[in-house]
Automatic annotation (TrEMBL):
Protein name per Swiss-Prot or TrEMBL: VOC family protein
Species lineage: Bacteria, Bacillati, Actinomycetota, Actinomycetes, Kitasatosporales
UniProt xrefs under SUPFAM superfamilies: Glyoxalase/Bleomycin resistance protein/Dihydroxybiphenyl dioxygenase
Signal sequence segment: none
Organism from which the protein derives: Streptomyces galilaeus
Domain of life per record: Bacteria
InterPro entries on file: Glyas_Bleomycin-R_OHBP_Dase, Glyas_Fos-R_dOase_dom, VOC_core
Annotated spans, Disordered: 1-28
Domain VOC: from-to ranges: 1-86
Length: 92
């Protein structure tokens, strides 16, 4: 998706069978404001892998009211990674 000036502000990257959604970019006072959404087959299994590899306490996956089951982690550089199982449903 592009804004009125033609700058891309949201995109999908396809890596094999995985889709990674990229939204935002740049740096704000709160840190980096890019969000990466990684679609996974089993978000609970992936949560355990990320939790073990990071060695950090993380909020467990939750079912979102807009559709997917998700969890999020911020990497050491300030980027947010959200892992999704399922698709978002647009509001009616």
């Amino acid at each position: 998706m592009r804004d009125d000036s033609g700058q891309t502000f949201e995109a999908d990257i396809h890596a094999g069978a995985t889709t990674i959604g990229v939204s935002g970019g740049g740096v704000s006072d709160e840190g980096r404001n890019a969000l990466f959404i990684v679609h996974v087959d089993d978000v609970d299994e992936h949560f355990e892998l990320v939790r073990a590899a990071s060695g950090r306490e993380l909020d467990a996956p939750v079912d979102q009211p807009y559709g997917p089951r998700t969890f999020m982690i911020t990497d050491p550089w300030g980027y947010q990674w959200s892992f999704w199982q399922g698709e978002a449903t647009p509001p009616r």
